[in-house]
Amino acid sequence: MTGTLVDTCVWSIALRGGTSKDTQIAEELTQLIDDHQVKIIGAIRQELLSGYSDKQSYERLRAKLKFFPNEPTVDADYEAAAEYSNFCRTKGIQGSHTDFLICAVAIRAKLKIFTTDKDFSNYCKHLPISIYELN
């Protein structure tokens, strides 16, 4: 694996914190950042920034996220995401378009996915994705 694609939910936990589990996730993300392993895609960046209606907070987060260039997405990723969505639906598994785009990019780029979203454990049953495990 050449890096870790960090899902929106992990970024959100790290940004807001709270519980000891949140602290562990934030520390793990910090370690990945320090090791230059963190990857992000435009859809995740958009989801993160969409959570801030206060312009000043939005700009602060936008500036921080600029440190992480987007992992490229290509047309084939969107096609694969649609294929994965259709396939998983035949298995009774629903998911968001962004989730399946994350899966498609991770598979193509050979990235692990760092997420707390339990839907990904269902996707793992049918897609060749690798979930990042907390140390």
Radius of gyration equals 15 Å
Indicate the proportion of strand residues.
Answer: 5-15%
Which architecture would the CATH scheme give at its second level? 3-Layer(aba) Sandwich
By CATH, the superfamily comes out as 5'-nuclease
Low-pLDDT ranges = none
- The portion of residues assigned to helices is 55-70%
Overall 3D shape:
globular
* Overall pLDDT confidence: 95
SS-based class: alpha/beta
SSE arrangement, N to C = EHHEHHHHEHE
What is CATH's topology name?
Rossmann fold
Give an account of the 3D structure:
This protein is an alpha/beta fold and 135 residues long. The chain has a single domain, classed as Rossmann fold (3-Layer(aba) Sandwich), CATH 3.40.50. The chain is built from seven helices and four strands; from the N terminus they run βααβααααβαβ. It has a four-stranded parallel beta sheet with strand order 2-1-3-4. The longest helix has 16 residues. It is globular. The protein starts with a strand and ends with a strand. The mean pLDDT is 95.
In short:
The protein is α/β, with parallel strands linked by helices and 135 residues long. It has helices at 8-16, 20-34, 42-50, 55-65, 75-90, 97-109, 119-123; strands spanning 4-6, 38-39, 112-114, 130-131. The mean pLDDT is 95.
Question: Can you give keywords for this protein?
Answer:
alpha/beta; 7% strand; Rossmann fold; 58% helix; 135 residues; 4 strands
Topology:
Elements: E1 4-6, H1 8-16, H2 20-34, E2 38-39, H3 42-50, H4 55-65, H5 75-90, H6 97-109, E3 112-114, H7 119-123, E4 130-131
Parallel strand pairs: 1-2, 1-3, 3-4
Helix pairs in contact: 1-2, 3-4, 5-6
